[in-house]
C-alpha cells in the first residue's frame, strides 16, 4: 500500500510540473497574441505626399486602389481638398471607428490649419463600422449630414448587399469627389426592394392543387373500376372453362 501511495504521489508531481508551464504558456498567449491582430493609430504609417489609401484590411483591389488614388490626386490639384481612405482589420479594445478616425486625423494633421481642407474615411473590416473626420474648411461643402450619409449609406449599402468593398469605396470616391469639387451631391445609392408578386404564386399553387386533385380522383376511379372489370371478366371466362 505504501508503494502505491508513493507511485500516486510521483504521478501527481509529474502532472503538476507538466500542467503549470502549459497554463503559463496559454495565459501568455491570450495576453499577447490577441492584441497583435488589432491595429492601433500609431501602427498606421506616417502620411506622405502620395498616400491616398492605406488598405490594412486588404479589401480593395490594386486596380481600384489606383483608380481611387488618381481621382483623389486630381481633386487635390484642382481644389486643394484632400481625401484619404484607411481600412483596418480590427480595432484595439475599446476603440470605435469614430475615435480611431479622430485620433488618426489628429496624428496626420496636428493643427487646425493642417486639418482645414482634409477628409478622412476609416473602416474597420471586422464590423464594417465606418466613420469620417473632416476639417473646418471642407464642412461648407461636405456637411456633417452628407458625411454621415457617405459613411452609412454610400459605403454601407454595398456592404450590406454582400460585402462589396470595392463597389463601396468606388461609390464613396465618386460622391466625395463630386461634393468636394462643388458639384451637386449625387446622393446615396438607391435601395431596390424585392417585391413578391402574390398573384403569381397563388396561381401556381392553385394549378398544382388542381393537378393533385385530378390524380387522386383518377386513382380512386381506377381502384374501383379495375377490380370490377377483372371480376366480370372472370365470370365471363369461367363458364367456358368449365365447358
Distance N terminus to C terminus? 101 Å
What is the H-and-E element order? HEHEHHEEHHHH
Number of E-type strands: 4
Radius of gyration: 36 Å
Give the helix proportion (percent range). Answer: 55-70%
Give the biggest sheet: 4 strands, mixed
The order of strands across the largest sheet is 1-2-3-4
Low-confidence stretches: 26-36
Strand content: 5-15%
By helix and strand content, what is the structural category?
Answer: alpha/beta
- Arithmetic mean pLDDT: 81
* Tally of separate helices: 8
Shape: elongated
Keywords:
4-stranded mixed β-sheet; single chain; 60% helix; 243 residues; alpha/beta
Give a verbal description of the structure.
The structure is a single chain. Helices cover 60% and strands 9% of the residues. With 243 residues, it is an alpha/beta fold. The chain has a four-stranded mixed beta sheet. Mean pLDDT is 81; it is low at 26-36.
Sequence-ordered SSE layout with sheet pairings:
Layout (H helix, E strand, L loop, with lengths): L1 H35 L16 E3 L6 H18 L2 E7 L8 H12 L3 H4 L2 E7 L4 E6 L9 H11 L1 H5 L4 H16 L17 H45 L1
Parallel strand pairs: 1-2, 2-3
Antiparallel strand pairs: 3-4
